[in-house]
Amino acid sequence: MLDEKPGSVLGENQHPGRWRLTRLLRGLLGTEGAIANPAPAGARVVVLDGGVKPLPIGSADYGAAWNWRIGASSKPAGDPANLAVTFAPSARGLRPWRPCHARRVNLPGGDIALSWTRRTRAFAGDNWALTEVPLGEVAEGYELDVLNGAAIVRTVSGLTTPVFTYTAAMQAVDFGAPVSGPLSVRIAQVGALGRGAILDITL
User: Fold this and answer.
1) For residue 95, is it within any domain?
2) Which residues contact 57 (CB under 8 A, 6 or more apart)?
């Protein structure tokens, strides 16, 4: 058994080298965008233990190219057996998580009221006794894209609350007429490093 906490992973040792895992939780800590649905047969499972150490990345490194060579510590860095990797830290873990619970209400006159619920990276964000989770950002802000197919027809910036009224006049400019059918939008909370994970949804 790996853990007995509610909602945590349970592991049963079937025989040496083989485990059966149950009660798996997907998308923890803002990782739902990396979920494969479903995971392909034979997908690898990575066990994160004390042997995994974070990279010493500072704020000055965000977006800068890093060149790493990965291999046995007994070999020199230039050994051809080492794997060469180039990447640019994006500070994903410091960006806001994807909003959730998006809702649409059609208002009299053709306006559409959109609302959503923010999430938080902050400590104690999983406290069910709180009326609202801690902000976890310097300031509250959101950006919203309205889509027509794959094309963005309107971007709304500077929202400071998780609501937006898409007026009938705006719809006429973007679509030529009020939107009576499904409406596709992208919603993101904005932090110090820009947009966080995007909620891509049709309402």
Assistant:
1) no
2) 89, 91
Give CA–CA dist 16/18, Å, rounded: 6
pLDDT greater at residue 83 or residue 16: 83
Distances 173 to 115, 156, 167, 178 between C-alpha atoms, Å:
21, 14, 10, 9
Residue 8 pLDDT more than 60? no
153 C-beta neighbours (distance < 10 Å), count: 15
64 and 158 co-located in one domain: no
Q: What is the pLDDT of residues 172-190, one digit of tens each?
A: 999 999 999 999 999 999 9
Domain residues for the domain of 175 are 100-202
The residue among 16, 17, 22 whose CA lies nearest residue 3 is 22
Q: What's the rounded mean pLDDT across residues 31-48? A: 76
32 and 38 in contact (C-beta within 8 Å)? no
Q: Chain-wide mean pLDDT for the chain?
A: 86
The verdict on 185 and 157 lying in the same domain is yes
Written as one letter, the residue type at 69 is R
Integer-rounded Cα radius of gyration of the chain: 22
